[in-house]
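Box 3.1 A note on notation
Throughout this textbook, protein chains are presented in two layers. The first layer is the amino acid sequence; the second is a token string describing backbone geometry. Keep the layers aligned when reading.
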Amino acid sequence: MTHRTLAALAVSALLVTPLTAFAQPMGPADGPRGPGRAEMLAKYDTNKDGKLDETEKAVIKADHFKKLDKDGDGKVKRADFPAAVEAAREKARQDHELAMFDKMDTDKDGTVTAAEFAAFKPARDGDHRGHKRDGK
């Protein structure tokens, strides 16, 4: 394997690591456990079993690789790699911030009042999304 192929595989693994959270079924009581999860399931869970199997994860990896492969030649260039990783980080950061906003917006009117802001209590178990790691 070439260094470029190894780098591409490493990027793919880096971007898809959060997929392991989808290995467990997510019933209606659980709901989405993070920003973008419901949308990802809706898009990639083709058999609609509430989790992502290996085939569905492979499709996600292929989609991520296409985003990294700027010129579509089937290879990720070393020069393109930092910008692609930074874009992925920025998207994750924005998703996190919007999820926190959604938690604060208790009446779901698209705004956060001073009272909603003051009442917001992020989880204290290291998860800053405003819910505990067990999904509750």
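Residues 3-119 form one domain. The chain has five helices and no strands.
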